[in-house]
Amino acid sequence: MTLDCVDMKTAASFWKAALEYDEPTPCTDDAQFHALVSPNGGLHHLTLQRVTEAKARKNRVHLDIFVDDLDSEVARLVGLGARTLEEHNDEGGYRTAVLADPLENEFCLVQR
């Protein structure tokens, strides 16, 4: 998964903490791409890609992050700089919340 961002350091800092991923190399101001990888050695990784234009509309693709405790995870991510867009809803038997990262990219939390 690749996420476009206008501010690489802000995005790297937020998503590293949000996903509890490893950062093999520090993010630099002039980086065009930056990788965050799952600490469990799996294939999951998030690549950040520098772009010059800010996000203009709703994302066409977004992350669904599955969590055990929706309320505590919303609070943790808001503490890291996320913003709640939609409060907790029940959808198809799952409790969900829609948030935006510090660069306004939407993502969902889904309680297992």
Describe the fold and architecture.
The protein has two domains: 1-54, 2,3-Dihydroxybiphenyl 1,2-Dioxygenase, domain 1 (Roll), CATH 3.10.180.10; 56-112, Roll (2,3-Dihydroxybiphenyl 1,2-Dioxygenase, domain 1). With 112 residues, it is an alpha/beta fold. The protein has a four-stranded mixed β-sheet with strand order 4-7-6-5, with helices on one face. The protein contains two helices and seven strands; from the N terminus they run E-H-E-E-E-H-E-E-E.
So, CATH architecture of the largest domain?
A: Roll
CATH homologous superfamily annotation of the largest domain:
2,3-Dihydroxybiphenyl 1,2-Dioxygenase, domain 1
**What value does the average pLDDT take?**
90
First-to-last CA distance:
22 Å
Radius of gyration of CA atoms, rounded to a whole number: 14 Å
From N to C, what is the helix and strand string? EHEEEHEEE
Q: How do the strands of the widest beta sheet line up side by side?
A: 4-7-6-5
Quickly count the helices: 2
- Could you describe the largest sheet, including whether it forms a barrel? 4 strands, mixed
pLDDT < 50 runs, ≥5 residues: none
Determine the strand fraction and express it as a percent band. Answer: 35-45%
Number of DSSP E strands: 7
Percent range of helical residues: 10-25%
CATH uppermost class of the largest domain: Alpha Beta
Structure in a nutshell:
By secondary structure, the protein is of the alpha/beta class. The protein has helices spanning 8-19, 70-80; strands at residues 2-5, 33-37, 45-50, 63-67, 83-91, 94-100, 106-111.
List the defining traits of the structure above.
single chain; 112 residues; alpha/beta; 2,3-Dihydroxybiphenyl 1,2-Dioxygenase, domain 1; 2 domains; four-stranded mixed sheet; 2 helices; 21% helix; 38% strand
